[in-house]
User: What shape does this take?
Amino acid sequence: MDQVKKIKVQDFVFYVTGMIVLIFSFSVLMALIIDMFSTGWPRINQSFFFSFPSRFAEKAGIFSAWVGSIAVVVVTALMAIPLGVATGVYLEEYAKKNWVSQIIELNILNLAGIPSIIYGIMALSMFVYQFKLGQSILTAGMTLGLLILPIIIVTTREAIRTIPSHIREASYAVGATKWQTIRYHILPYSSGGIMTGVVIALSRAIGETAPLVTVGALTFIAFLPTSPILEHSPYISLQWLLDPYTVMPIQMFNWISRPQEEFHVNAAAAGMVLLSMTLTLNLGAILIRYYFRKKYKW
Amino acid sequence: MSALLQAKTTRKMKEKLIEFFFFLCALSSVAVTFSIVYTLVSEAFPFFKVVSIKEFLTSTEWTPLFENPRYGIWPLLSGTLMTTVIALSIAIPFGLITSVFLSEYASSRVREIFKPLLELLAAVPTVVYGYFAMLFVTPLLQSVLPELGAFNALSAGLVMGLMIVPYVSSLSEDAMRAVPQSLREGSLALGASKFQTSFKVVLPSAFSGIASSYVLAISRAIGETMVVAIAAGLQPQFTFNPLNSTATLTAYIVQVSLGDLPHGSIGYQTIYVAGLTLFIFTFALNIVGQLIRRSLQKRVK
Assistant: This one.
């Protein structure tokens, strides 16, 4: 009888420990959010969003930073999504079981484990100096694109793997080619999973700081990139790709590293905006997953 | 007839072309690895023409930006080791308890609530964690440990540890959920408690998955940059005192990047030396992690 009691106590104690650990982790997260929001809140107003950085803390804003973040993420998405999805499709649908595909697979696992700052110094040597792209939006977007490539590849593969093989067989049976099967069946059915992965990857790209510090993003940018839309022919300009930039996390890092207290308030406010951006994207990913899980039932 | 045949060959050609295109995309990921290794080695190589490997491996001073530069890697290694150990002392127990709790104890409702919340911990940008470590955790710890510096390895390591918990717990949990239900039922039927079943049956069976999650956690802690660069300071010194400011391999790279070093100078090369050292560590850990996981897949079969 005593033994039974002891065992029950043991189980109960572990349950409580688990709860405490989880609740502790979330209280830390809550402390982070509350601390940052209460510090940064007074700075959140319209002029903060539409002012350029400044030597005076109370005049400084995040205009160039959030515009830069959007511009960089557009380049990142244009590069990483097609490349990542195509690689995922190749490995799941085309690749034969041989040493070439095994090397590619191992390589992707390994890429996912390389620290982000290594991508940064690679890009510094490759993109900035070798390709002479300078400290531009293009360099930043490509660096982050390479960084999130493994995430997109892995989630694409996982999404494709959930599609049962009878879908493929049915498509082949009515005479479709492999490409038609992929184009009209595999990609649409896996789009939910792929989109979830893409959104999570882009949220990571928005919050990533270290690789952009190494490619030299930490400069004083008090202007916006050139507008992509022209008023005269040819109406579209790509000049913005080569413009210097700053992004949200870099701007925040810049303010953190200043000794003055007032700049830390700005950092908190920028952190609020940045955290809201990444958490919104992650929430979006959860919703997409939920919606598609309901849509397709095999 | 020949028209049909021709249509068939063009279709086949098109299919082949598409397959080739996909293959090229997949191959480009290998090119990324190659360019990483190539740039690290080719930029770090000239450094070792100036500095002997002996100096690099034995000197305990790292002052490349001073007038009398010394190039011993140990201060950066000690900083990296210290923050990593502190981070793991949080991440491993927390990750283990969380994963056992979620996989063996929690009802499916509790799990549905906590899992997405854990993912949120991983969604916070590292620069935000850095802010938190420097301006919240350090002042908090200073009220207990008055001798704690404004920049210190302790709070950077602690925050980093918490940041890594979701990585450890989700991989460990996956490994534990892959353990067949029959093993648990067998154990419970023999009269073992849930606690005994979890720790004496499930954990050993999922051992390699859990071990590989730890290895990945180590590699992540070594490579983490912003938290240490912000909260642990940027001063390379050979010390194992967590109350002092220190610099990791990654923080050193950040520090140099903040300045304006000309391309090709020895200062510029040192970031590739630090990067190459970092790459060798994380690469080795990734390989070990994959080998451990592979041994699991074989055993489960």
